[in-house]
Every structure is written in C-alpha cells, then in structure tokens.
C-alpha cells in the first residue's frame, strides 16, 4: 500500500510540473525509531533504479543509481536516483541518519539537474538538499536546515 502511495505521489508531482516550476515538495516519512544514534541512513524498501534511456545526455545519466556517504562525518546519507529524463528531471529517494537534533528519515520526491548540480525539492521541514557532481565521479552534498549547512561526499554504489 505504501509503495502504491509513493508511486502515486511521484506521478502526481510529475503531472503538475510546468516549464518554470517552483521548488517541489517531497514526502518525509520518519524512521521507526527516532532515538537512534548517528549511523546508517536506512531505506524502508529497496528502490527501483531505471537505467537512463539512450536519449538522456551523459551529463545527466551519470547521476543515476545509488549513492552513499556521510554528512559532517557523523550522519550517513543515501540518495537513490531512480529515474533521469532527457531534460534533467529526476525522481529520487533520499534517507538520512541523525543530524544534530533532526531524527532520521526518508523522503521520496523529484528534482532537476542544472549544469553539474542536482537540486531536490524542498522538504516539508524546510531542508534544501543539492548534490554537485565532482570531477572524480563523487557527489558533494549540501543540506541546509534551520540556518545550518551540512556538507558531505557521496560515492556511487
């Protein structure tokens, strides 16, 4: 049932997009145990990664797949770029561990690649997350929340 709801939400987001779209919202689902020490970001379910089509430029296709790393060397982050379109729009699933006073959680949503940066829609808690492709093939993550900025590097799995 949850998978169906996530799929419906992703389709609804895609259907509502316009050429000059505002930041999109993502659905945040807290992890089952909010008092977990810093550590792995756990996805409730294994994501389905759809390989980019031949019409997707290489500069966008390189973002496809599962990425794992740490924010501020304490909290693990996981980004699953599930689909990439020829215009740089993506669907994702993102999970994070404990970061300061923020509980671990998971978000499904959408974003857009502009240049070498993937920006996700704003989370309901106000967090903004972006991922910049570095020359070595890793992603530099920046998460801004409540006046604080956290950074880290993700590697492709």
Q: Can you walk me through this structure?
A:
With 157 residues, the protein is mostly beta strands. Helices cover 11% and strands 41% of the residues. The protein has helices spanning 2-15, 58-61; strands at residues 27-30, 65-71, 75-84, 89-96, 105-114, 117-120, 128-133, 139-145, 148-156. Strands 2-3-4-5-6-7-8-9 form an eight-stranded antiparallel beta barrel. Residues 1-39 have low confidence and may be disordered.
Sheet with the most strands, sense and barrel status: 8 strands, antiparallel, barrel
Mean pLDDT: 77
User: Number of DSSP helices?
Assistant: 2
Helix content: 10-25%
Number of extended strands: 9
Evaluate the radius of gyration. Answer: 15 Å
> What is the terminal-to-terminal distance?
28 Å
Low-confidence stretches: 1-39
Globally, the shape reads: globular
Q: How would you classify the helix and strand content by structural class?
A: mainly beta
Instruction: Give the ordered list of helices and strands.
Output: HEHEEEEEEEE
Strand coverage percent? 35-45%
The strand order across the widest sheet is 2-3-4-5-6-7-8-9
Give the SSE layout.
Layout: H1 2-15, E1 27-30, H2 58-61, E2 65-71, E3 75-84, E4 89-96, E5 105-114, E6 117-120, E7 128-133, E8 139-145, E9 148-156
Antiparallel strand pairs: 1-5, 2-3, 2-9, 3-4, 4-5, 5-6, 6-7, 7-8, 8-9
Please sum up the structure shown.
The chain is mainly β and 157 residues long. Helix content is 11%, strand content 41%. Strands 2-3-4-5-6-7-8-9 form an 8-stranded antiparallel barrel.
């Amino acid at each position: 049932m949850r998978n169906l709801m996530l799929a419906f939400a992703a389709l609804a987001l895609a259907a509502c997009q316009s050429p000059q779209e505002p930041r999109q919202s993502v659905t945040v689902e807290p992890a089952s145990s909010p008092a977990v020490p810093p550590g792995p970001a756990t996805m409730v379910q294994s994501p389905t990664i759809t390989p980019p089509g031949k019409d997707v430029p290489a500069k966008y296709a390189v973002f496809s797949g599962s990425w794992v790393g740490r924010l501020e060397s304490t909290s693990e982050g996981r980004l699953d770029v599930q689909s990439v379109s020829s215009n740089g729009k993506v669907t994702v699933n993102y999970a994070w561990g404990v970061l300061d006073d923020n509980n671990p959680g998971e978000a499904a949503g959408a974003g857009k690649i502009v240049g070498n940066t993937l920006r996700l829609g704003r989370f309901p808690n106000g967090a903004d997350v972006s991922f910049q492709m570095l020359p070595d093939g890793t992603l530099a993550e920046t998460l801004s929340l409540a006046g604080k900025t956290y950074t880290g590097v993700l590697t492709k799995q």
